[in-house]
Amino acid sequence: MEGVDENNRIVTKPSIFRGNEMGNRRALRDIRNLMGAPPYPCAVSKRPLSEKNGIDDQKPTFAGRRPMTRRFAASLASRSQHSHQEASETSEEYIIGRHKKPNLSTLNPCSSDTSLAIEVDDYTAANDLTLPMVEEIEEMGNCDLKEVEMEDLVEEPIPDIDGFDSSNPLAAVDYVEEIYSFYKRTEVAGCAHLDYMSNQFDINEKMRAILIDWLIEVHYKFELMDETLFLTVNIIDRFLSRQTVIRKKLQLVGVTAMLLACKYEEVSVPVVEDLILISDRAYTRHEVLEMESLMVNTLQFNMSVPTPYVFMRRFLKAAQSDRQLELLSFFIIELCLVEYQMLKYRPSLLAAAAIYTAQCSLKGFKLWTRISELHTSYSEEQLLECSRLMVDFHRKAGTGKLTGVHRKYSTFKFGCAAKSEAALFLFDSGI
């Protein structure tokens, strides 16, 4: 090692630089030959240290840091042509199959082969191949949306008829559907036998009609609840289907049935003396109480039966009825209470048919909404037979001897519903 002269300030250099100091420097004419050289004349890309030392480790380097030799230029041209051919084959395969996506890893300029250079036009053309697929996906999505919209139009949501009564505890909104489902299952068990009059030897259908028509007037005079009237008729029919009675005891059966119904439904129950008085003292108190004991034992104390009134309240709510429709519906169904032949229909069917007939009478055309059909479980075709009988009762209500229902609904209190026109067109119309 050479010494250091403090006066001349000579610093000893390493042996790697002491030889030919200019031997490894590049000529100025070679500076611009560097591929990717910066545009500024002062920024000169230098070779890696391994090249300076004369070491060629054959490792790939970025094109911008390697001199453009003939061998390197030929290598770049060969690789670019090969990648362009692969991209073309992939594009053709994708266009034909429409199922395979192009391998973008071969088109990615940031792939593992960092010395690979592709043209911008090739890369853009390769990406353009995905546009038809995107449009098809959007069209499929639009088709799906259209199908969903069509399904929504076909399947309309069922309106909630109990929404307005959600705050009313007496409406039992939480389990009202279960209640009426139970009523529908048990209504047959609460009906009388269809031909029980054939077992009666001293009474007939006409006597029954006279009794019911008279009890409707008594019910109206005592201002009793509607539930009481329907339960009274139900008790009479069920008792007569199991027990034979003589003619002069038939009125006693009717009076006692009303007494039982009042005890079950009314808050203020008429006393026995009032019922004896209304029957023109034809019976004594002892006879009324004795008949009461016989009837409850015959019916096995079963008073909780679904009558047509129970279904009337629910079905009128589903029909979104007003006061006029409600009064006309009850007028029609009370006409059916007098008729013995209507016992062949279930209480729920009677209620639905009465509402359907009233709607046809008021509107002048057939009307049975989808909501009513869902809540009643009866179609318009199922109601037509019963409805035609009701129209006939409506037409003849003011004639004959049994006009108690017609007089009741001809008053202003009941909206003069009996004066409405009957839906006679139902006789000629077909479903």
UniProtKB/TrEMBL annotation:
Residues 48-59 have a biased composition (Basic and acidic residues). Residues 44-63 are annotated as: Disordered. The keyword Cell cycle applies. Pfam families: Cyclin_C, Cyclin_N. InterPro entries: Cyclin, Cyclin-like_dom, Cyclin-like_sf, Cyclin_A/B-like, Cyclin_C-dom, Cyclin_N, Cyclins_cyclin-box. It comes from the Eukaryota. GO terms for biological process: cell division; mitotic cell cycle phase transition; response to gamma radiation. One of its GO terms (molecular function) is cyclin-dependent protein serine/threonine kinase regulator activity. Residues 213-297, 310-392 form the Cyclin-like domain. Residues 306-423 form the Cyclin C-terminal domain. Keywords: Cell cycle, Cell division, Cyclin. CDD domains: CYCLIN_AtCycB-like_rpt1 (cd20567), CYCLIN_AtCycB-like_rpt2 (cd20511). Belongs to the cyclin family. Cyclin AB subfamily. PANTHER family: CYCLINS. This is Cyclin-B2-1-like isoform X4.
